[in-house]
Write a structure and sequence with these properties.
mainly alpha
Protein backbone atom coordinates (compact mmCIF):
# COMPACT_ATOMS: atom_id res chain seq x y z
CA UNK A 1 0.00 0.00 0.00
CA UNK A 2 1.24 3.48 -0.72
CA UNK A 3 -0.88 5.76 1.44
CA UNK A 4 0.27 4.43 4.86
CA UNK A 5 -3.34 4.34 6.04
CA UNK A 6 -3.16 2.42 9.33
CA UNK A 7 -6.91 1.79 9.67
CA UNK A 8 -7.98 -1.84 9.62
CA UNK A 9 -11.20 -3.88 10.03
CA UNK A 10 -12.80 -4.00 13.46
CA UNK A 11 -11.70 -7.35 14.91
CA UNK A 12 -14.79 -7.39 17.14
CA UNK A 13 -16.89 -8.13 14.04
CA UNK A 14 -16.87 -11.17 11.79
CA UNK A 15 -14.84 -10.28 8.70
CA UNK A 16 -14.27 -12.21 5.50
CA UNK A 17 -10.67 -12.69 4.44
CA UNK A 18 -9.89 -10.50 1.41
CA UNK A 19 -9.32 -12.88 -1.52
CA UNK A 20 -6.14 -13.17 -3.52
CA UNK A 21 -6.51 -10.98 -6.62
CA UNK A 22 -7.23 -12.93 -9.78
CA UNK A 23 -4.19 -11.42 -11.53
CA UNK A 24 -1.77 -12.31 -8.73
CA UNK A 25 1.42 -14.14 -9.65
CA UNK A 26 2.36 -17.59 -8.40
CA UNK A 27 4.84 -15.97 -6.00
CA UNK A 28 2.11 -13.69 -4.69
CA UNK A 29 -0.03 -16.77 -4.11
CA UNK A 30 2.69 -18.38 -2.02
CA UNK A 31 3.24 -15.17 -0.07
CA UNK A 32 -0.51 -14.78 0.50
CA UNK A 33 -0.88 -18.30 1.93
CA UNK A 34 2.13 -17.83 4.17
CA UNK A 35 0.68 -14.55 5.41
CA UNK A 36 -2.65 -16.15 6.33
CA UNK A 37 -0.81 -18.89 8.21
CA UNK A 38 -1.44 -21.65 5.65
CA UNK A 39 -5.14 -21.10 6.23
CA UNK A 40 -5.07 -20.82 10.02
CA UNK A 41 -6.04 -17.15 9.75
CA UNK A 42 -9.08 -17.67 7.52
CA UNK A 43 -11.63 -17.76 10.35
CA UNK A 44 -14.17 -14.92 10.16
CA UNK A 45 -13.98 -14.51 13.94
CA UNK A 46 -10.81 -14.39 16.07
CA UNK A 47 -8.43 -15.05 13.16
CA UNK A 48 -5.52 -13.84 15.31
CA UNK A 49 -6.24 -16.47 17.95
CA UNK A 50 -6.66 -19.25 15.42
CA UNK A 51 -3.57 -18.03 13.58
CA UNK A 52 -1.60 -18.19 16.82
CA UNK A 53 -2.84 -21.77 17.32
CA UNK A 54 -1.50 -22.53 13.84
CA UNK A 55 1.83 -20.93 14.72
CA UNK A 56 2.01 -23.02 17.88
CA UNK A 57 1.24 -26.24 16.00
CA UNK A 58 4.00 -25.51 13.49
CA UNK A 59 6.39 -24.19 16.15
CA UNK A 60 6.37 -27.29 18.37
CA UNK A 61 8.03 -29.65 15.86
CA UNK A 62 10.46 -26.87 14.91
CA UNK A 63 11.47 -26.64 18.58
CA UNK A 64 12.43 -30.31 18.49
CA UNK A 65 15.27 -29.34 16.12
CA UNK A 66 17.01 -27.68 19.07
CA UNK A 67 17.33 -24.13 20.34
CA UNK A 68 19.81 -22.77 17.80
CA UNK A 69 17.89 -23.93 14.70
CA UNK A 70 14.63 -22.72 16.24
CA UNK A 71 16.19 -19.34 17.10
CA UNK A 72 17.51 -19.00 13.54
CA UNK A 73 14.09 -19.85 12.06
CA UNK A 74 12.38 -17.40 14.40
CA UNK A 75 14.73 -14.57 13.43
CA UNK A 76 14.25 -15.44 9.76
CA UNK A 77 10.46 -15.44 10.20
CA UNK A 78 10.65 -11.90 11.60
CA UNK A 79 12.89 -10.58 8.85
CA UNK A 80 11.08 -12.25 5.95
CA UNK A 81 7.75 -11.49 7.62
CA UNK A 82 8.19 -7.76 7.04
CA UNK A 83 8.10 -8.42 3.30
CA UNK A 84 5.44 -11.15 3.47
CA UNK A 85 3.04 -9.00 5.51
CA UNK A 86 3.75 -5.86 3.52
CA UNK A 87 3.20 -7.58 0.18
CA UNK A 88 0.02 -9.27 1.39
CA UNK A 89 -1.31 -5.95 2.69
CA UNK A 90 -0.80 -4.62 -0.84
CA UNK A 91 -2.64 -7.60 -2.31
CA UNK A 92 -5.52 -7.22 0.15
CA UNK A 93 -5.49 -3.41 -0.04
CA UNK A 94 -5.81 -3.34 3.75
CA UNK A 95 -3.10 -2.48 6.24
CA UNK A 96 -2.66 -5.27 8.80
CA UNK A 97 -5.84 -7.16 7.96
CA UNK A 98 -6.70 -9.47 10.90
CA UNK A 99 -6.43 -12.48 8.59
CA UNK A 100 -2.72 -11.77 8.11
CA UNK A 101 -1.34 -13.97 10.90
CA UNK A 102 2.30 -14.52 9.92
CA UNK A 103 3.09 -11.87 12.53
CA UNK A 104 1.24 -13.98 15.14
CA UNK A 105 3.31 -16.99 14.09
CA UNK A 106 6.54 -15.05 14.56
CA UNK A 107 5.40 -13.54 17.87
CA UNK A 108 4.36 -16.96 19.18
CA UNK A 109 7.73 -18.43 18.23
CA UNK A 110 9.52 -15.61 20.04
CA UNK A 111 7.44 -16.41 23.13
CA UNK A 112 8.54 -20.04 22.88
CA UNK A 113 12.28 -19.25 22.78
CA UNK A 114 12.86 -19.51 26.57
CA UNK A 115 10.96 -22.80 26.65
CA UNK A 116 13.06 -24.07 23.74
CA UNK A 117 16.28 -23.03 25.46
CA UNK A 118 15.37 -24.63 28.79
CA UNK A 119 14.37 -27.95 27.24
CA UNK A 120 17.37 -27.93 24.90
CA UNK A 121 20.07 -27.12 27.47
CA UNK A 122 18.71 -27.12 31.03
CA UNK A 123 16.57 -30.22 30.52
CA UNK A 124 16.71 -33.15 30.11
CA UNK A 125 18.73 -33.76 33.27
CA UNK A 126 20.55 -37.03 33.96
CA UNK A 127 17.37 -38.15 35.79
CA UNK A 128 15.09 -37.12 32.92
CA UNK A 129 16.52 -38.06 29.55
CA UNK A 130 13.29 -38.12 27.55
CA UNK A 131 13.35 -36.09 24.32
CA UNK A 132 11.70 -32.69 24.53
CA UNK A 133 8.41 -33.65 22.89
CA UNK A 134 7.98 -36.67 25.20
CA UNK A 135 8.29 -34.72 28.43
CA UNK A 136 4.96 -33.98 30.18
CA UNK A 137 6.50 -30.82 31.70
CA UNK A 138 7.17 -29.45 28.20
CA UNK A 139 3.50 -29.81 27.22
CA UNK A 140 2.42 -28.37 30.56
CA UNK A 141 4.19 -25.06 29.92
CA UNK A 142 2.99 -24.56 26.33
CA UNK A 143 -0.47 -23.20 27.29
CA UNK A 144 1.15 -20.58 29.53
CA UNK A 145 3.22 -19.28 26.62
CA UNK A 146 0.18 -19.25 24.33
CA UNK A 147 -2.01 -17.38 26.83
CA UNK A 148 0.66 -14.80 27.65
CA UNK A 149 1.25 -13.99 24.00
CA UNK A 150 -2.45 -13.64 23.25
CA UNK A 151 -2.94 -11.38 26.28
CA UNK A 152 -0.17 -9.02 25.17
CA UNK A 153 -1.24 -9.16 21.53
CA UNK A 154 -4.88 -8.36 22.36
CA UNK A 155 -4.42 -5.77 25.12
CA UNK A 156 -1.45 -4.10 23.40
CA UNK A 157 0.10 -2.27 26.39
CA UNK A 158 2.84 0.27 25.58
CA UNK A 159 4.96 0.08 23.50
CA UNK A 160 2.95 -2.56 21.60
CA UNK A 161 0.00 -0.21 21.05
CA UNK A 162 2.31 2.53 19.79
CA UNK A 163 3.88 0.20 17.23
CA UNK A 164 0.45 -1.02 16.14
CA UNK A 165 -0.87 2.51 15.53
CA UNK A 166 2.17 4.46 14.39
CA UNK A 167 4.36 2.19 12.25
CA UNK A 168 3.29 1.61 8.65
CA UNK A 169 3.93 -1.09 6.10
CA UNK A 170 5.11 -4.63 6.67
CA UNK A 171 7.28 -3.51 9.57
CA UNK A 172 4.21 -2.08 11.26
CA UNK A 173 2.35 -5.37 10.84
CA UNK A 174 5.23 -7.32 12.36
CA UNK A 175 6.58 -4.96 15.01
CA UNK A 176 3.73 -5.03 17.52
CA UNK A 177 3.68 -8.83 17.52
CA UNK A 178 7.47 -9.02 17.84
CA UNK A 179 7.30 -6.75 20.90
CA UNK A 180 4.37 -8.75 22.28
CA UNK A 181 6.40 -11.93 21.83
CA UNK A 182 9.41 -10.47 23.63
CA UNK A 183 7.27 -9.24 26.54
CA UNK A 184 5.37 -12.54 26.77
CA UNK A 185 8.65 -14.48 26.70
CA UNK A 186 10.05 -12.35 29.53
CA UNK A 187 6.95 -12.85 31.70
CA UNK A 188 6.91 -16.57 30.92
CA UNK A 189 10.52 -16.85 32.07
CA UNK A 190 9.76 -14.97 35.30
CA UNK A 191 6.84 -17.32 36.01
CA UNK A 192 8.92 -20.40 35.24
CA UNK A 193 11.84 -19.28 37.42
CA UNK A 194 9.48 -18.33 40.24
CA UNK A 195 7.98 -21.81 40.21
CA UNK A 196 11.42 -23.40 40.15
CA UNK A 197 12.76 -21.20 42.97
CA UNK A 198 9.84 -21.10 45.37
CA UNK A 199 7.88 -24.31 44.89
CA UNK A 200 10.18 -26.73 43.03
CA UNK A 201 8.81 -29.71 44.93
CA UNK A 202 5.30 -28.91 43.59
CA UNK A 203 6.39 -28.45 39.97
CA UNK A 204 5.51 -32.04 38.89
CA UNK A 205 2.01 -31.53 40.30
CA UNK A 206 1.43 -28.59 37.97
CA UNK A 207 2.09 -30.65 34.87
CA UNK A 208 -0.15 -33.17 33.14
CA UNK A 209 0.92 -36.76 33.72
Amino acid sequence: MTDHNLSKPDIRNANDCPPLPANASMLDGVVYWLAIGLGSGLSRRAPGTWGTVGGLIVGVPLMSLGFIPFLALTILSCLVGVWICGRTSDLMQVHDDPHIVWDEWAGMWITLLPLSYIFSYVLPTPEDTLPMLLQPMFWGWLPTAFILFRVFDILKPPPIGWADKKVAGGLGVMLDDIIAGVMAAAIWLVIFMSVMMFIPERLPLLMPQ
